[in-house]
Design a protein that fits this description.
Layout: H1 2-17, H2 45-66, H3 75-82, H4 100-107
The structure holds heme C (HEC) (3 copies).
């Protein structure tokens, strides 16, 4: 987590520099995401770190081509567990700068197109 934490700091510093700090990462409250209260992901963390994209892509094929839904690898599930809230209790998009699905991707220069269609915040029940 150390490298990721310093990435957050760096992102925060850079966005502050460009005057964006107040509208983005700064608003998400640390500890407000479900995953931050849990011990483990849908697989061990090291496995998720290495293989999460394989799991999601496999799940997409199952759902879109075979109509199979609701596995532990659903993209909606990732968003549900990993999204943080802001101080007013509103969800912050999981792919916003500095948020969970952006931290590493920003670092490896991946820009997920998935969220052009898929919801970036949990569905309110
Ligand atoms: C039920 C809650 C839950 C769901 C659903 C979930 N996760 Fe996780 N995830 C966690 C927890 C808890 C951790 C462990 C965090 C830690 O080790 O500090 C984690 C860790 C991770 C990590 C490793 C982060 C790191 O620090 O290296 C990745 C990547 C990840 N999840 C991606 C996903 C993806 C992609 C999905 C959807 C397929 C998903 N998660 C679904 C709870 C969840
Ligand atoms: C052009 C729109 C579009 C884009 C872009 C897109 N998807 Fe989807 N995706 C869909 C639709 C529509 C479904 C079917 C939803 C359903 O039937 O539940 C779907 C279903 C899924 C599912 C199964 C449902 C779930 O929540 O798990 C996964 C996984 C998935 N997509 C992953 C991805 C990933 C990963 C990307 C990016 C690499 C991506 N999608 C990009 C439209 C899109
Ligand atoms: C611990 C760092 C880390 C976290 C956190 C993380 N990712 Fe990733 N993700 C990566 C890396 C690294 C790659 C590139 C893997 C490769 O191409 O070899 C990647 C690639 C992907 C891809 C494939 C992109 C493509 O165009 O092929 C998807 C989809 C994806 N991640 C979804 C997610 C989602 C959804 C989340 C949040 C729930 C998430 N990731 C969180 C590190 C992370």
């Amino acid at each position: 987590m150390t490298r990721i934490s310093s990435m957050i700091l760096l992102t925060g510093a850079l966005s502050g520099l460009f005057g964006l700090g107040n509208v983005i990462a700064a608003e998400a409250v640390k500890g407000s995401a479900k995953y931050e209260k849990l011990e483990q992901c849908v697989e061990p963390t090291s496995v998720m770190r290495r293989n999460h994209f394989e799991f999601i892509k496999h799940q997409r094929n199952l759902t879109v081509h075979q109509g199979i839904r609701g596995s532990k690898y659903s993209l909606a599930g990732c968003v549900d567990c990993h999204a943080r809230k802001d101080a007013s209790g509103k969800y912050v998009p999981v792919n916003e700068e500095g948020q969970f699905c952006d931290e590493c991707h920003d670092y490896v220069a991946i820009d997920l197109k998935c969220f052009e269609c898929h919801a970036t915040v949990p569905r309110e029940k």
